[in-house]
Specification:
456 residues, mainly alpha, three-stranded antiparallel beta sheet, 23 helices
Length: 456
């Protein structure tokens, strides 16, 4: 089961420059008609200033036809704007350079600073025009400098969107993650200040842009799970973008996070079942795989769904195609974990028969499960000689450890009591009155014991 046009659903929530990367990827895979993909690419190029690519693709798709007039006028207008705004940027860089100023020139520097702030919007526009033209490096430099000067949330948000897009395209790993978190915090903080703003639209964009940050720009798949699991984003995931559940589940399998996060999948499947069109998730084998494995314990059905991933399921996915082998390996490991929890005690040969795995592969999975502290909530014990695997469902109980380490507890306590009594009797700090009272209390007890022994 493979949906070749799956990634095309993401395009409405992405910048055209990011969407072009996905379309080029699909053209290389050749899973969809190339002519249809080229038409989509031409429409995306029309939204940018990549005029040379647009002219070349237009000539191949529409030979003998002239280029639309609006594109030629757009090119001339943008070139004129770039020339006008370039002088403002150069003036800003000269004024922003560190200089040694005397006390007499403070008023002039303050006036110059206010003059620069009034032209920040023009500099931001210059950075966006460079970005639309494909000069991502220079645009990132401009937006980074402006972000250090701005204080207004609305303008800062606009700058951070462009800065994040540049960092994704330039593959600046650390910077893209920090910019994404800043943008997310800024959008959430604006909820109280601008209650009428379309904040859900911005959240939908973040839900799609996080895929680039986590899977393509930087290896941080847990960021997808943390974002989509948030209480502000999860309702949008179910209502507007249920297809993102495949990325949510993939991030959980890749990052090996705690199983408590997987309850979102069960809640989401129940919520989608209540809607008029429940097929939105019923055709998603990844959601069904998690439901069969974790919530039903049906290893056979989960194994059949996992076999669908081994085919062409991820081949046309721009984000998950490089990670398909890791997703399959962690999926098999999840089935081994579920099987151990259900059986309680089994052998490697039985696991190999039920899951169609090789013995060495199963041994490596069991060793990784034993070493893992986040991936499992129970303790797995593996005997390499007998190939027997047992499961302790209460690994966090301290009673077995106490019983093993304190078998001679009575003898040790007796020795400690003797030492305490000797040290207590040898000390002189006890008052005489108290010592006599203690002796008087001890004597009657001995007399009673003698009487009891005589009576017996």
């Amino acid at each position: 089961m493979c949906d070749e046009s799956f990634c095309l659903r993401l395009i409405p929530y992405l910048d055209p420059h990011l969407s072009l990367r996905i379309v080029d990827f699909l053209i290389e895979r050749k899973k969809l008609p190339v002519d249809e993909l080229n038409i989509i690419k031409l429409r995306l190029l029309q939204q940018t200033d990549l005029f040379e690519q647009y002219f070349a693709l237009h000539a191949t798709l529409h030979p003998g036809q002239d280029i639309p007039e609006n594109i030629t006028h757009k090119k001339e207008d943008h070139e004129n704007k770039l020339e006008q705004l370039k002088s403002i940027w150069e003036e800003f860089t000269q004024n922003d350079a560190p200089k040694e100023e005397s006390n007499e020139d403070k008023k002039e520097s303050e006036e110059q600073q206010t003059f620069d702030e009034s032209k920040y919007s023009s500099i931001i526009q210059y950075g966006h025009l460079l970005f639309a033209k494909g000069n991502y490096e220079e645009s990132h430099k401009i937006l980074t400098e402006i972000s250090k000067k701005l204080n207004h949330d609305q303008t800062m948000k606009q700058v951070l969107w462009g800065k994040l897009c540049c960092e994704i395209l330039l593959e600046k790993h650390d910077e893209s993650t920090s910019t994404f978190m800043k943008l997310r915090n800024l959008i959430e903080s604006r909820l109280n200040h601008f209650p009428g703003s379309p904040i859900n639209v911005e959240r939908k964009w973040l839900m799609h842009w996080v895929l680039f940050v986590a899977f393509r720009s930087q290896w941080n798949p847990q960021l997808v799970a943390e974002t989509l699991m948030d209480e502000n984003y999860y309702p949008l995931l179910l209502t507007s973008a249920p297809y993102l559940l495949r990325y949510y589940i993939s991030s959980i399998l890749l990052s090996r996070v705690k199983r408590t996060m997987l309850t979102v999948v069960r809640m989401g499947s129940k919520q989608l079942n209540k809607e008029k069109n429940p097929t939105a998730h019923s055709k998603n084998p990844m959601v069904l795989f998690m439901a069969k494995a974790l919530f039903e314990g049906n290893v056979k059905s989960a194994k059949q769904l996992l076999n669908e991933f081994s085919g062409e399921y991820f081949e046309s996915d721009y984000f998950l195609s490089p990670l398909a082998s890791d997703i399959l390996t962690n999926g098999k490991m999840l089935l081994v974990e579920v099987l151990l929890k259900v059986k309680g005690s089994t052998t490697i040969s039985r696991i190999c028969d039920e899951l169609s795995l090789q013995p060495e592969e199963v041994r490596q999975m069991i060793v990784s499960i034993c070493k893992s502290t986040k991936f499992t909530k129970f303790l797995v014990k593996f005997d390499a000689k007998t190939n027997v695997v047992t499961v302790d469902t209460h690994p966090f109980s301290i009673i077995p450890g106490i019983m093993e380490n304190c078998r001679d507890i009575n003898e040790k306590c007796a020795r400690i009591n003797e030492k305490l009594l000797t040290s207590y009797s040898s000390t002189n700090w006890v008052p005489k009155s108290e010592s006599k009272s203690l002796q008087n209390e001890v004597k009657p007890s001995k007399e009673k014991e003698q009487k009891r022994s005589e009576n017996k």
